[in-house]
Write a structure and sequence with these properties.
By secondary structure, the chain is an alpha/beta fold. It has helices at 20-32, 45-51, 56-69, 111-120, 141-169, 189-201, 227-248, 268-278, 289-300, 303-318, 320-324, 341-345, 349-356, 367-374, 377-383, 385-393, 395-415, and strands at residues 8-13, 38-44, 76-82, 96-100, 126-128, 137-139, 175-179, 206-210, 255-258, 282-285.
C-alpha cells in the first residue's frame, strides 16, 4: 500500500533538534480542537552542513518527540531540497522528499522533445475552461512551447531523481514533492497546467507541488505583495491542480505546498478561505521560525540566556555580509534600522524580546533585527555545546514560546477560524 500523506501537513524546521516536543505540542493543540494536521520535520543539506549535524539526527529527534508525547497519528521527515548529488545520506532517514530542480529551470529543451511533448497534449491547445477559474485559459502551441522550454528539463530531472529514490527505497514508500518555486517569475495557471501534464508523463506520483507565487516570501517576516492578487492566484492554482488530477491521473491527494510559509500572516486568511471553499489540502513549510523562538526564549529567561542571545546578535552584526549573502534574494534588511551591538547590550530582556518577536503592531518590533538573526543561526552553531547547553537550561521559556508561536500565529489562523 502506497504511503499517502494526510490532507493537511505542516513542515516544521528544527535547526538544533531540541524543539521537537514543543513543535508537536502545537500540532496536538490543533488536534484537540478537531483539526488533524500531521507534522513533517524538514532540514536541508545546507542546514546540516552549517550546523554540523548528522542527517540521522532529524529522524531521531522527530521519533523521540512522537514517542514522548504519545502522538498516535502520522509524522514524516523531509529530505528538504535534495538533488542527485546529495540524496544518498537521506535515503535511510526520510519518507518525504522535496525534489529541487532549480538548476534546470530555464534550460531550453531539445526542439524535437518540445514538439513531441506538445503533440502529446493537443487538448490544451485553444480555449480551455477550468472549473473555478474566471474565464477560459487561452493556450497556443507557441505559449506551450515557451513553458516547455522553461520547465521541461526541470521536470525530466525531477523524474530522474524520483526514480533513483524509488530504486533505493521502493515505490510507494515515500511522499514526493516537486519544488518549482526557485525561479524569478511566478507560474501562471496555464504554465502550472503544462508543468503538471509533464510531471504526469514522467509518472512521478507527486503528492505536493510548490509553485512560485507573486510577492516576496522573505525569511522570518510577513508576506510582501498584493494580498488580493495572491488570493486569486492561490485559488486558480487549486483549480488547475483539481483539473490536472482528473485529466492526467495524478494522485487524488495532490496539494499545494507553500515554501517559506512561516510568518506570512497576511495571507493566512486567504489560504484558509480557499481551503474551506474548495475542500483542498495544504502543505506549508516553515523556515527558521523555531530558531527565532529559541532566541526569544533565551532572552526571556534573562540572566545567562539573555547574555547569550545578545552575543549571538553582536556576532551576527559583525558578520552580517557573509551571513546574508546566501539569502540575499529572500531578505530585505535596512542596515540603518539595525541597532548597534552596544545598544543591544544595554537592553532589558523585554526590549530584546519585543524587537525580535513577530508582532508587527508592537512599537519595538524591528523587522531588520529579526531578519538578521534569522540568517544568523550559523553563529549559534559555532558556539557548539555552549549554545546547546543553554537551550536545556532555558527549556521552559523556549518550549513555551515555540508552542505558542506555532499554534497561535500559524496553525490557528491557517486551519481554525
Amino acid at each position: 500500500m502506497a504511503l499517502i500523506i494526510e490532507k493537511f501537513s505542516f513542515g516544521v524546521g528544527d535547526r538544533f533538534a531540541h524543539q521537537g516536543k514543543a513543535q508537536l505540542a502545537a500540532i496536538m493543540k490543533a488536534a484537540e480542537q478537531g483539526v488533524e494536521i500531521v507534522p513533517v520535520w524538514n532540514k536541508s543539506n545546507r542546514e546540516h552542513q552549517t550546523i554540523g549535524s548528522e542527517i540521522a539526527s532529524c529522524r531521531t529527534a522527530a521519533d523521540a518527540a512522537v514517542k514522548d508525547l504519545g502522538w498516535k497519528h502520522s509524522h514524516y521527515v523531509d529530505a528538504d531540497h535534495i538533488n542527485l548529488k546529495i540524496v544518498d545520506p537521506f535515503l535511510s532517514n526520510s519518507d518525504f522528499y522535496t525534489i529541487d530542480v532549480a538548476d534546470a529551470i530555464g534550460t531550453p529543451a531539445d526542439a524535437a522533445e518540445v514538439d513531441a511533448f506538445i503533440d502529446s497534449i493537443p487538448e490544451l491547445i485553444g480555449s480551455l475552461t477550468i472549473p473555478g477559474i474566471d474565464g477560459p485559459l487561452e493556450m497556443t502551441r507557441e505559449s506551450i512551447a515557451a513553458t516547455a522550454n522553461q520547465y521541461l528539463k526541470a521536470v525530466k530531472l525531477a523524474g530522474e531523481i524520483y526514480r533513483y529514490i524509488a530504486s533505493k527505497n521502493g515505490e510507494g514508500t515515500f511522499v514526493t514533492e516537486v519544488s518549482m518555486d526557485e525561479t524569478d517569475s511566478p507560474q501562471t495557471p496555464p504554465e502550472l497546467l503544462v508543468i503538471l501534464a509533464a510531471l504526469a508523463q514522467e509518472k512521478i506520483p507527486i503528492q505536493t507541488i510548490a509553485p512560485k507565487f507573486t510577492g516576496r516570501f522573505n525569511k522570518g517576516v510577513d508576506y510582501v505583495g498584493d494580498v488580493a492578487q495572491f488570493e486569486k492566484e492561490f485559488e486558480d492554482d487549486l483549480a488547475v491542480i483539481a483539473f490536472a488530477v482528473e485529466k492526467y491521473g495524478l494522485p487524488e491527494n495532490l496539494k499545494l505546498s507553500v515554501h517559506s510559509g512561516s510568518d506570512k500572516f497576511s495571507i493566512y486568511g486567504p489560504i484558509r478561505r480557499a481551503l474551506a471553499k474548495t475542500g483542498a489540502g495544504l502543505h506549508i513549510k516553515t523556515a527558521g521560525t523555531t530558531w527565532l523562538e529559541e532566541l526569544i526564549g533565551l532572552a526571556e529567561a534573562d540572566g545567562p540566556g539573555l547574555e547569550l542571545a545578545k552575543e549571538v546578535y553582536a556576532k551576527a552584526f559583525e558578520n552580517s555580509a557573509a551571513l546574508c549573502e546566501p539569502y540575499a534574494t529572500v531578505i530585505d534588511i535596512d542596515a540603518d534600522q539595525l541597532p548597534s551591538p552596544e545598544e543591544v547590550n544595554g537592553w532589558t530582556a523585554s526590549q530584546y524580546v519585543n524587537a525580535l518577536r513577530h508582532d508587527p503592531n508592537h512599537p519595538e518590533f524591528n523587522s531588520s533585527f529579526r531578519q538578521l538573526l534569522h540568517v544568523g543561526y550559523k553563529i549559534a552553531a559555532k558556539m557548539g555545546d555552549r549554545y546547546l547547553n543553554m537551550l536545556v537550561q532555558c527549556e521552559e521559556s523556549i518550549s513555551r514560546n515555540v508552542t505558542e508561536n506555532l499554534f497561535e500565529r500559524h496553525l490557528k489562523p491557517l486551519f481554525l477560524d
